Amino acid sequence: MQKARKTGLPDDITMRHDNHYVDLIEEKLYGPRIRMISINKIDPSPHQARTELGDIEELMASIKEKGILQPIIVREKNGR
Question: Which pTM was predicted?
Fold first, then answer.
């Protein structure tokens, strides 16, 4: 007979010490989170393939006209 489980993490999640541990569990259980983030808190990735990002005014106008066509994915790093 199997013991009834009263509390704890789901069977497919194990405890680990990681800065993003809670975020990873929440994403696995509830899906990705959507948040509004101030643009001044976003830094470009050093691994970005594009070396020239183009005209920010043109990008802003395009977003105003068409909206964001693909979600912008960011991750927290060093408290930012």
Answer: 0.38
